[in-house]
Amino acid sequence: MFLNQFYTEIDQQIIISATQASLFAKEIAQDFNPLHDPDSKRFCVPGDLLFAIIVAKYGLSAKMEFTFSGMVGHNIPLNFPVTAAENFDITDDKGKVYLKVRRNGQTINTENIMAKFIREYVAFSGPNFPHVLVPLMAEHNVMINTLRPLVIYESMSFEFSNLEFNTPKLKATNNNLNINGKRGNAQLHFQVIADNKIIATGFKKLLISGIKNYDKVVINNFVEQYLTLQANYTNTP
Q: What CA–CA distance (Å, rounded) separates 16 from 217?
């Protein structure tokens, strides 16, 4: 599958370098979160890459839930168990859990279907900042700390009524933001549509730290820098 270039597999362990993670974020997800830059002091592997590898290796199940409990750093060997169990964890050699996977129902391993859904979901998920989160925060008169932005995955889940599809499209439905002091969480809901029918629903939950009062000038400057970085990368030969 197209994901092979974004990780290395040795003895049933997955190793993701900062360069591989950053390439996936920018090339596949259009995600320019500074946490995914190789030289970031707080670098972490994109949650969407971990999700994508899980689906590619274990199949696409009718109902799946992913709970992220740790930030994966550069070249950390991750244990991907050989299992058909409904519940399993992705851990390191010290037993630290980074991702909990829960699944049930029909499971398919058709590569082209899995690849289409992975690409479509990641294309939907990656650009959540700034196009979704910034307007959502503005509605609540808050914003991230632009000097130390921290927006990370907490969980994602979906449920299919039909796993026989050709060209899935994701459509955003309703989004919610809950604020608790300097922290908050955003729930971004979506539908999966194929052949003009809704075949799945789901949502992703993001944790936001360092929340401040909304400052239009500051956040607009930050967004402009973000979009300029994205445009420069896209236009680089």
A: 37
